[in-house]
């Protein structure tokens, strides 16, 4: 097994919010490789396409994007919009970082930020966020440990989200959220023609309904395949039919579009490749 396929002892964590915030926050992921000597291949980070927006912090170390978004991260706080394609970053050395993942319509409700304007883009959060949010970001950056950081985020968001009283969530899967957004758009008094509904969905979520449904189906496939792998070899044709793809070829095309890899190659890399740590956190 070569270096790129060797799993390290990096400290990483998936944090889920309390139920009252589940209509606003999807999760936070934390990764700490300080004190570890990783190869460059092991310092890569693979991310799938996502309908979510995010805020990221680097408490130590730095990263830069590869591919279409190539370049250093716009530190210290990075805002990322929804991504319709997979992305890859590489850490310049040991890092301790956190990414807070938010539902785009919830962020729009709380800040007025339009996710449409940030699709496939990274931005310096200091140019976008309202002053109270920036103060929260600064407090998180200065906090002494991850538990305190997560508590600061929760304490900041909970009263804001409660006051907004959107009557949405909790959403445990993309599918539930997409269905809720579509229903809310269809029943809005602002207009109910198909074009108006689709425009409203894109305005709230940043992406058209067709793309949201494709990403929702990809997530369901990932969850289903993760469970199937534990039972033995995966029958991809059966998985495609169960989740609603036209056939196995359709599943393969969509998996490659969302992750950059075929289903079988993705399964192997999640199992063996350090740089696919985000996928393993979601298993």
Quickly describe the structure.
The chain is of the alpha+beta class and 283 residues long. It has 10 helices and 10 strands.
Features:
283 residues; Arc Repressor Mutant, subunit A; Jelly Rolls; alpha+beta; 10 helices; 2 domains; 42% helix; four-stranded antiparallel beta sheet
Order of helices and strands: EEEEEEEEEHEHHHHHHHHH
**Name of the CATH class of the largest domain:** Mainly Beta
By CATH, the architecture of the largest domain is named Sandwich
Proportion of β residues?
15-25%
By helix and strand content, what is the structural category?
A: alpha+beta
Question: How many individual β-strands?
Answer: 10
Question: How would you explain this protein's 3D organization?
Answer:
The structure is a single chain. The protein is built from ten helices and ten strands. It has helices spanning 104-111, 131-142, 146-164, 174-186, 194-205, 209-229, 236-243, 248-259, 263-272, 277-281; strands at 11-15, 25-32, 44-47, 53-60, 63-65, 71-72, 77-80, 87-91, 96-102, 122-124. The chain has a six-stranded antiparallel sheet. The radius of gyration is 19 Å and the shape is globular. The model has no long low-confidence stretch (mean pLDDT 90).
SSE topology sketch:
Blueprint: E1 11-15, E2 25-32, E3 44-47, E4 53-60, E5 63-65, E6 71-72, E7 77-80, E8 87-91, E9 96-102, H1 104-111, E10 122-124, H2 131-142, H3 146-164, H4 174-186, H5 194-205, H6 209-229, H7 236-243, H8 248-259, H9 263-272, H10 277-281
Antiparallel strand pairs: 1-2, 2-9, 3-8, 4-7, 4-9, 5-6, 5-8, 7-10
Helix pairs in contact: 2-3, 4-5, 4-6
């Amino acid at each position: 097994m070569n270096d790129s396929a060797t799993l390290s002892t990096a400290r990483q964590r998936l944090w889920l919010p309390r139920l009252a915030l589940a209509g606003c926050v999807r999760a936070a992921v934390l990764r700490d490789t300080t004190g570890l000597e990783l190869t460059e291949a092991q310092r890569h980070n693979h991310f799938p396409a996502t309908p979510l927006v995010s805020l990221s912090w680097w408490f130590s170390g730095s990263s830069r994007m590869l591919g279409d978004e190539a370049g250093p991260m716009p530190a210290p706080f990075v805002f990322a919009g929804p991504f319709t394609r997979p992305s890859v970053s590489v850490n310049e050395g040991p890092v301790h970082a956190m990414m807070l993942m938010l539902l785009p319509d919830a962020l729009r409700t709380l800040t007025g930020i339009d996710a449409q304007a940030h699709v496939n883009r990274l931005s310096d959060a200091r140019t976008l966020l309202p002053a109270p949010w920036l103060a929260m970001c600064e407090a998180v950056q200065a906090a002494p440990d991850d538990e305190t950081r997560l508590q600061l985020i929760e304490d900041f968001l909970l009263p804001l989200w409660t006051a907004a009283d959107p009557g949405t969530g909790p959403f445990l899967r993309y599918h539930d959220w997409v269905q809720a957004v579509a229903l809310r758009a269809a029943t809005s008094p602002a207009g109910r023609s198909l074009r108006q509904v689709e425009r409203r969905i894109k305005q709230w979520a940043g992406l058209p309904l067709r793309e949201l449904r494709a990403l929702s189906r990809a997530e369901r496939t990932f969850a289903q395949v993760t469970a199937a792998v534990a039972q033995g070899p995966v029958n991809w044709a059966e998985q495609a039919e169960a989740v609603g793809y036209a056939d196995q070829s359709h599943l393969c095309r969509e998996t490659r579009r969302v992750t950059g890899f075929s289903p079988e190659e993705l399964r192997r890399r999640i199992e063996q490749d350090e740089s696919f740590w985000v996928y393993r956190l979601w298993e």
